[in-house]
């Protein structure tokens, strides 16, 4: 369990997230992922990072059960900080980050993928934000990097998901492949990037971030404020408790 770092030839680093059963990350998981991303990018030998996951799906967001077991708000504050750090680490990684996505990519998974540079997905991958159904908000910042504005709003309000194929048609997903060829496809893209001059690629990443129309770190932090508000009203606790009962049924 955890996040594993594998350094491959040519300056390619593969980060694998493995938190059974569905890669819903606890507080520590988010901070560990952020640290792995920062460590990988800080290594001058790293030219590109591939972010992937084991299991049925890429990421199921935060560990709702961990939050529900906390009688106060300590875990909520901690996991929000962990998500912020992980999303920020993807975006600010000084080399390109390629997300290799299979199965479900929801909640916090959208934050990771939306901040990545390139997305390769399996043909069974689906993307969405069920936050409203969980009594929370957040990651609309990152979903809006994947789909047009009005589509993002409809998805956010309804919890609707979209397929990798749909995102490919929009230009957000670079390649759609069979699940058993996902890592290979991501590594092919990584090798293409890694073959370029490493200084030029690092400067290109900094330049592209510098011309982004939205400050993703500030934007996501703004969203999180409304999550805190919802939790202070008590509505989020009630929704999470109902979610837990549905899981047990």
Automatic annotation (TrEMBL):
Xref: Gene3D superfamilies: 2-enoyl-CoA Hydratase, Chain A, domain 1 (3.90.226.10)
GO biological process: fatty acid beta-oxidation
Family in the record: Belongs to the enoyl-CoA hydratase/isomerase family.
Protein name according to UniProt: Enoyl-CoA hydratase
Pfam families named in the record: ECH_1
Any GO molecular function: lyase activity
Keywords assigned: Lipid metabolism, Lyase
């Amino acid at each position: 369990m955890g996040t594993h770092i594998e350094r491959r030839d040519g300056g390619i680093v593969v980060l694998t997230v493995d938190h059974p059963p569905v890669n819903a990350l606890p507080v520590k998981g988010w901070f560990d992922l952020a640290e792995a991303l920062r460590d990988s990018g800080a290594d001058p030998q790293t030219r590109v990072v591939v972010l992937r996951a084991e299991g049925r799906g890429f990421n199921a967001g935060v560990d709702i059960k961990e939050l529900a077991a906390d009688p106060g708000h300590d875990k909520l504050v901690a996991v929000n900080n962990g998500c912020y750090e992980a999303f920020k680490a993807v975006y600010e990684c000084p080399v390109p980050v390629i997300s290799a996505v299979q199965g479900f990519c929801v909640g916090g998974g959208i934050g990771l993928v939306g901040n990545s540079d390139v997305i390769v997905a399996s043909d069974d991958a689906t993307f969405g934000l069920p936050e409203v159904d969980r009594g929370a908000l957040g990651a609309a910042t990152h979903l809006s990097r994947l789909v047009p504005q009005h589509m993002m709003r409809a998805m956010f309000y309804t919890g609707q998901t979209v397929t990798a194929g749909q995102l490919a048609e929009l230009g957000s997903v670079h390649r759609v492949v069979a699940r058993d060829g996902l890592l290979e496809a991501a590594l092919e893209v990584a090798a293409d990037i890694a073959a370029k001059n490493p200084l030029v690629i690092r400067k290109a990443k900094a330049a592209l971030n510098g011309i982004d129309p939205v400050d993703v770190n500030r934007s996501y932090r703004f969203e999180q404020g409304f999550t805190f508000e919802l939790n202070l009203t008590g509505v989020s606790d009630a929704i999470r408790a109902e979610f837990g009962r549905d899981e047990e049924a």
